[in-house]
């Protein structure tokens, strides 16, 4: 009997039972090989329960050591999705299932297959992976870090920083975030005793701490939220370069600010319906780029030196294309 | 790691309801396996059941002619097995990528109904954040629905080089992500041509209820975006101070690297707006050499933006 056949039989036996079943009763029901010694059965039975639990079955054990399936915890409630909601799942599935940079595709495929007929099919909307020659390696790195975040295990890896200097790192990974198609890991660099951000594309040979694999190595700081590290493009750089910028947004474009600001900074409405967005920045160049790329309707109003730099740069650009 | 065959079959349990008849190739495509493999798995599943494993206690499946049919009641009370933690996390992250956070109705309802007990999408987002793009989730949903239903959509769109939003009707055929931003490829009734629209620049979208008139496949590239082979090329000059990165200029190719660190780049374009805005945002570090229409677009945009700083 194939292993999966035994697993399905065990699931069906538990689902059909009106009363909890002991391990012995399950063993004698024909699910397990006849003549198997006790130790071998026990190992196989424990492994099977773990497998079923990992697939979503909730198996309770009572005080007598008998097992039952909790149907409410095991089976989903009815989900009535609207056609647009189903279409969203189809589009998301289509875009991400074949994306090598999305490291959770196998689990996503199973989730969609369980929930929505057809949502995991590429026949829905045409989708596309987030591009990058190293997308697959990045995806594998993120999968490894994600497992360590979940298990709270330290990881060791080789890291090449933005200056091209490589070296080994040991990090307690607290979280991951995706920014413009690239994944970043956030965690405490054990040697430096500082929380740092690492680009997944610059990480190689990620290995979790092999010692005591089922015991966590650390706890993330209380209230940790990786969103605090997913900054706007102009907010990266040395802390000593930080300044407060003000960006005036026309009334006609203020609807885009919720998304553009990503919840960062403060928004103040003006009488004409426009909005002033006060936000910290660390790069004048990238601030100017952000404002101009996301125009029309955005203007840097402070600091004055940045506004003047943008104005002069625009006039130079105009002249260079005359 | 769970047995993959068992995992596939468990994923299908909720679909195997009495009286159902499903094409095996469709299920195989959803599960990313071959039709032959899944048919073999289903035939083995038909041998599974409950004690005493007599014919009446087995899964009532018929696998033939490319279909799986459930001809009777199942031997156990089954349903859609809830998503285990890793499946729920993958779904929550995928929805994040599409702009639907833990608090959005779709995410909340799906996970409340189907995720393993105790799974918290909000807690997941505090450790893994996969939000992508700056678009509004309802706009994304409307576009996805229109793609699926082959219907037209009325949108308010802010073109990168326009002073105000314009209203237009489009027939979307694809949604795709690039560098973390979502785009839709659509037949634009306004332009009478295929166009790609950045979703975050769509202020609002509503299905018109009209069927799409252009179902022919547009000239897609391999990534879902419009193919660029037949488009005209613009030539750009990057100063030595401006590092060229293909990620910032998708599809662009370096044609010449100079000793002083500057370089010449060629990039295909369907319209001038997007490239003009990116060139202007480099504040002189990138210059358009040709064509003249692109130079004119950059000049006009730079002038208009500069005027905002001189009022």
What does this structure look like?
The complex is a heterodimer of chains A (322) and B (311). Chain A is of the alpha+beta class and 322 residues long. Chain A has ten helices and twelve strands. In chain A, the strands form three sheets. A five-stranded antiparallel β-sheet of chain A has the order 7-6-5-4-8, with helices on one face. In chain A, strands 10-11-9-12 form a four-stranded antiparallel β-sheet. In chain A, β10 (266-269) and β11 (275-281) form a beta hairpin. Chain B is an alpha+beta fold and 311 residues long. Chain B has helices spanning 4-12, 24-31, 35-45, 85-97, 105-114, 121-127, 137-149, 273-281, 292-308, and strands at 21-23, 61-64, 67-70, 128-129, 151-157, 166-178, 181-188, 193-198, 202-211, 233-238, 253-257, 263-268, 286-290. A five-stranded antiparallel β-sheet of chain B has the order 8-7-6-5-9, with helices on one face. In chain B, strands 11-12-10-13 form a four-stranded antiparallel β-sheet, with helices on one face. In chain B, strands 1-3-2 form a three-stranded antiparallel β-sheet. The longest helix of chain B has 17 residues, at 292-308. Chain B is elongated and about 85 Å long. The termini of chain B are far apart.
Structural class of chain A: alpha+beta
Low-confidence stretches of chain B: none
Chains forming the largest contact: A-B, 120 and 128 residues
Number of DSSP E strands of chain A: 12
Count of helix runs of chain B: 9
Please identify the structural class of chain B as seen in this structure: alpha+beta
């Amino acid at each position: 009997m194939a292993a999966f056949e035994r697993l399905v039989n065990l699931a069906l036996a538990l689902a059909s039972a009106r009363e909890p079943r002991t391990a012995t009763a399950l063993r004698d029901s024909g699910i397990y090989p006849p003549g198997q010694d006790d130790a071998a059965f026990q190992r196989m039975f424990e492994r099977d329960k773990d497998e079923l639990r990992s697939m979503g079955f909730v198996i309770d054990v009572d005080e007598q050591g008998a097992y039952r399936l909790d149907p409410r915890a095991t089976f989903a409630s009815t989900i009535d999705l609207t056609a647009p909601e189903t279409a969203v799942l189809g589009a998301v599935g289509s875009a991400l299932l074949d994306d090598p940079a999305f490291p959770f595709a196998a689990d996503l495929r199973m989730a969609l297959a369980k929930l929505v007929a057809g949502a995991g099919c590429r026949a829905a909307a045409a989708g596309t992976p987030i591009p990058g020659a190293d997308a697959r390696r990045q995806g594998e790195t993120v999968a490894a870090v994600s497992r360590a975040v979940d298990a709270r295990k330290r990881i060791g890896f080789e890291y090449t920083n933005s200056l091209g200097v490589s070296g080994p790192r040991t990090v307690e990974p607290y979280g991951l975030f995706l920014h413009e198609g690239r994944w970043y890991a956030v965690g405490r660099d054990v040697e430096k005793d500082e929380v740092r951000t690492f680009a997944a594309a610059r990480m190689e040979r990620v290995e979790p701490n092999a010692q005591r694999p089922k015991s966590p190595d650390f706890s993330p700081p209380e209230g940790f939220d990786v969103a605090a590290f997913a900054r706007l493009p102009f907010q990266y750089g040395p802390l000593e370069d930080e300044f407060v910028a003000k960006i005036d947004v026309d009334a006609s474009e203020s609807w885009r600010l919720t998304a553009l600001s990503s919840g960062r900074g403060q928004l103040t409405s003006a009488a004409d319906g426009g909005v002033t967005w006060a936000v910290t920045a660390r790069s004048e160049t990238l601030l100017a780029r952000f404002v101009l790329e996301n125009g029309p309707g955005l203007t840097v109003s402070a600091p004055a030196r940045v506004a003047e730099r943008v104005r002069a740069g625009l006039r130079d650009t105009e002249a260079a294309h005359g | 790691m769970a047995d993959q065959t068992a995992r596939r079959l468990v994923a299908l349990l909720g679909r195997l309801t009495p009286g159902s008849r499903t094409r095996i190739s469709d299920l195989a495509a959803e599960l990313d396996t071959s039709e032959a493999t899944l048919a073999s798995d289903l035939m083995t599943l038909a041998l599974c059941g409950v004690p005493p494993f007599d014919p009446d206690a087995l899964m009532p499946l018929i696998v033939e002619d490319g279909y799986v049919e459930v001809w009777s009641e199942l031997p156990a009370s089954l349903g859609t097995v809830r998503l285990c933690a890793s499946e729920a996390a993958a779904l929550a992250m995928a929805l994040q990528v599409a702009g639907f956070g833990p608090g959005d109705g779709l995410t909340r309802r799906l996970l409340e109904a189907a995720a393993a007990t105790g799974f918290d999408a909000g807690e997941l987002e505090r450790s893994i954040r996969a939000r992508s793009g700056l678009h509004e989730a309802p706009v994304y949903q409307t576009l996805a629905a229109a793609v699926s239903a082959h219907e037209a959509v009325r949108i308010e769109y802010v073109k990168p080089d326009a002073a105000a939003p314009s209203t237009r009707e489009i027939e979307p055929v694809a949604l795709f992500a690039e560098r973390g931003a979502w785009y839709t490829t659509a037949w634009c009734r306004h332009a009478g041509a295929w166009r790609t629209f950045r979703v975050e620049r769509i202020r609002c979208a509503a299905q018109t209820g009209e069927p799409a008139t252009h179902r022919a496949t547009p000239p897609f590239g391999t990534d879902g975006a419009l193919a660029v082979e037949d488009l005209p090329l613009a030539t750009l000059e990057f100063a030595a101070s401006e590092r060229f990165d293909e990620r910032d200029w998708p599809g662009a190719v370096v044609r010449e690297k100079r000793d002083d660190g500057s370089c010449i780049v060629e990039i295909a374009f369907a319209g001038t707006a997007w490239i003009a805005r990116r060139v202007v945002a480099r504040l002189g570090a990138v210059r358009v050499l040709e064509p003249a229409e692109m130079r004119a677009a950059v000049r006009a945009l730079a002038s208009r933006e500069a005027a905002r700083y001189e009022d």
